Amino acid sequence: MILRYILLFLFPGFLFAQTGTFNASNEDWRASGDPTNTNAFWEPAGGNPGGYIRVVDASIGGLWYFEAPSRYRGNKCDAYGKYLRWDQITSDTNNQFGPLDTRDVVLESNTITLVFDNTQNPGLTWTHFDVLLREDAGWRIGDLNGPAPTEAQFQAALANISGLRIQGEYRSQADFGGLDNFIFESTFQFDLDGNDSSGALNGDFNADTTCTPTAPVADSDAVLFSETSVDSIVLRLPFAQNPAFETFLTSALPASVAAQVVAPGWLRLVNTGTATPANFMTALQAVQYTDNSPAPPRAVRIVSVVVYAECGNMGQRYAYLPIFPAGYAGEDAERTFCAGTASTDLLQALGGDPPPGGVWQPALMSGNSLFNPATDQPGVYQYIIPDAGTCPGDTATITIAVEQPFSLRSDTTICNGDYLLLTIPPNLTNWTWNDGSQQSTLEVKTPGVYTLKGQTDYCSFADSVQVDFYTCKTCLIYAPNVFTPNDDGRNDNWQIFLPCIWLSFRLEVFDRWGNVVFAADDPEQPWDGTWRGKKVAPGVYSWWLEWKGELFGAPEVYRERGGVTVVR
Questions:
Q1: What is the pLDDT of residues 508-563, one digit of tens each?
Q2: Residues 6+ apart with CB under 8 A from 449
Q3: Pairing, β 52-56 against β 176-184
Q4: Are 506 and 376 part of one and the same domain?
Q5: What is the Cα–Cα distance from 444 to 411, expressed in whole angstroms?
Q6: DSSP H or E stretch at residue 395
Q7: Is residue 296 part of a domain?
Q8: Are 393 and 436 part of one and the same domain?
Q9: Do residues 182 and 195 both lie within one domain?
Q10: Of 384, 402, 420, which marks where a domain is finished?
Q11: How many structural domains is the chain composed of?
Q12: Could you tell me the pTM of the whole model?
């Protein structure tokens, strides 16, 4: 076994093969089928040598598999004709399945599933397996009885791997299995930050924060290795801040690599015929992102970098470029808002058109830049563009006043016969009463709603007051005791005079036999001294009155009796 590890270093291709040594973690391997846990458990010792991963069978039916993580998926077309290699162990070999009865390796793509059955099962000690990645090595399509794949089918599957599983269960009873030294001889390696010194993982790159709108897209120790010829590298900005102004600039490139600007924010590095992966890496490290807009926003730019080889897209990595030019928070300002108006964006209230992304202190209730006069307090607010590393920020101040609406007064009720004087509130520069008048005071003598509209230096407001009247003392009626209905034009009619507001009214006049000779439901309706169209005889007639009015706003019923003499 020692000889095999020496060979890994004798053949350069193995230096770039994708491997799983499990010496520090489970390297994101999982388990599928019927394990007790879908996460493969990492054992720091007991491997071949060092650490390994272990999965325990739940014994609920079916088979469980070691599930390879995402780095073994995607385009692995360069592995064609090479090997999958691993070491495997099992806890119990009693009652094992037959060596040729199960799918020991399952390689899935979006269009086809390839399976492989080893000629032996894992043993109680570490057992090594080598599986050739070729259509004629014993692979089948779908299941063990399926047809062998063609070369085109096998290469297509390697070019788009969506899943890779190694069988771990070989008996129907409870057991556990281990996996170590997994090698997928796909030698393609692409890493924008070879030693992960920028803090980015999975081949990505975090550039240092810059105060100018330019940054590299790869670290000085970036890695590109491919045994197949590299056709091109494509750089794009999937989330461009200023698409018309963002671009990629290149310094001196190797003669074998040409730069093609497809569009703003879209650069293609192309193999002119003899470029090696090292030439491409030199070219990529010569690329600089830049933002030529007049006011580049402070944000992290994201650059997508994709390597294309003879068999297509080999891998995609991302460069994260934190670009924070000197902050600009705008110009100080003063604003007066009117109570009751809609929210206003304070960024637009500041001078100089500052960019979004800063912080307001104190914070606004909206959680962003909207000032709402109903919920936010007037006062001094600061818009702060914070420092970013060594890149300075900026602060602008806006002083806010809020004008409140005026109030005429509260609704009121006054006594009949009195009046109410409404006065213009202070600070109004122009006003109009609801009757169209513009005097500084309004004398209210009748009930109703009285409205004032007025302007201050900044705002327009309106307010209304409801004024009601009620009777404050008992109403006295006047009933004449004699009249002369002789058509001489003087004192020809008789009525009861009611000088108050009434709600209902009933008056009846009787002769001495109790006959109703006159009745009225309105105090303005007089009696002319007739009954049924004929003049009544002279004499005394009695009357009865009931009317309903109000006293201090409450209904009040009044009853009166009396007499009137008809003289002819």
A1: 999 999 999 999 999 999 999 999 999 999 999 999 999 998 888 888 899 999 99
A2: 434, 464, 465, 466, 467
A3: antiparallel
A4: no
A5: 13
A6: strand 394-403
A7: yes
A8: no
A9: no
A10: 402
A11: 5
A12: 0.61
